[in-house]
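Hi team,

Filling in the usual template for the complex we talked about on Friday. All components are listed, including any nucleic acid strands or ligand strings, so the model treats them as one assembly.

SUBMITTER: L.P.
PURPOSE: interface mapping
COMPONENTS: two
RESIDUES: 225
SEQUENCES:
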Amino acid sequence: DADVTQTPRNRITKTGKRIMLECSQTKGHDRMYWYRQDPGLGLRLIYYSFDVKDINKGEISDGYSVSRQAQAKFSLSLESAIPNQTALYFCATSESGEGYTFGSGTRLTVV
Amino acid sequence: TQLLEQSPQFLSIQEGENLTVYCNSSSVFSSLQWYRQEPGEGPVLLVTVVTGGEVKKLKRLTFQFGDARKDSSLHITAAQPGDTGLYLCATPGGSGGSNYKLTFGKGTLLTVNP
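RESULT (copied from the run log):
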């Protein structure tokens, strides 16, 4: 099994719909992150969590919310999806001072 | 947030050629990480450099950290098609520890043609 598992891998949804992207990790790390990747814009941080009771906004949190259900699970929600939220979404986990382990990503298309 | 500039943005070369890609900032890096992202997958950590002037080698990949810790380079010798991917540099925000979160450059997209 992968260290970081993201579901679904691909999703097409309609404008205005609520959608949840899920992430689980088996690394036992406290820190988890959500990034989106867009061509020409790189990886941008949406939300991050340093433990179950700690949730922080990243640089582009508007239109998104998160839930840290357990140490191993961190989900990202789009309350009312819009077309400019079409992107590749990555979940990652880390220990303090170490590099990130990323999931394989979710390709989201909002039509 | 520290800005990272990567160059070139795109690079297409033939198998067997050598290449260098760069990551620069106007601010000092506390440390720097290099990742490679293959199509359809998430980035994978290649190396972390911490000390100014540091050189690390990973098979045909050589990573250098500038003496002033404001720049870093990745050199690939005798590139192979399997080296194709997006190469990203990243640095921690804040002072590390409890404020540890990475800022990424936009990457260099490398294509190695057979």
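MY TAKE: Chain B touches chain A at residues 1, 33, 35, 40-45, 48, 88, 90, 96-98, 100-107 (CB under 8 Å). Chain B has a mean pLDDT of 91.

Thanks, L.
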